[in-house]
């Protein structure tokens, strides 16, 4: 079962979909999430969010000023500023 991922900035949804892996930079370091991960709430640091879609395609976004939460295989990333790189 894939992760359900939503990446939003202050003014728009940047990306949403299903993924097998999400890696983001937090103020405590880089962290990765796969299905079955324990619940997490973390503060984003400026950096990349790397998403591996269920199909294997890679999505990269720059994000800063926000937080991320993980619960029940749902990853929500809310950033003050976020944009897709690829």
TrEMBL record:
Keyword Transport (UniProt): yes
Gene Ontology, cellular component aspect: plasma membrane; proton-transporting ATP synthase complex
Keyword Transport in record: yes
Location of this chain's protein in the cell: Cell membrane
Alphabetic keyword roster: ATP synthesis, CF(1), Ion transport, Membrane, Transport
Entries under Pfam families matching the protein: ATP-synt_DE_N
One MF annotation (Gene Ontology) recorded for this entry: proton-transporting ATP synthase activity, rotational mechanism
Gene3D superfamilies associated with the record: F0F1 ATP synthase delta/epsilon subunit, N-terminal
Topology term for the membrane: Peripheral membrane protein
Domain of life the protein comes from: Bacteria
Family as reported in the entry's similarity comment: Belongs to the ATPase epsilon chain family.
The protein's assembly and partners: F-type ATPases have 2 components, CF(1) - the catalytic core - and CF(0) - the membrane proton channel. CF(1) has five subunits: alpha(3), beta(3), gamma(1), delta(1), epsilon(1). CF(0) has three main subunits: a, b and c.
Name of the protein in question: F0F1 ATP synthase subunit epsilon
Naturally occurring in which organism (per UniProt): Microbacterium caowuchunii
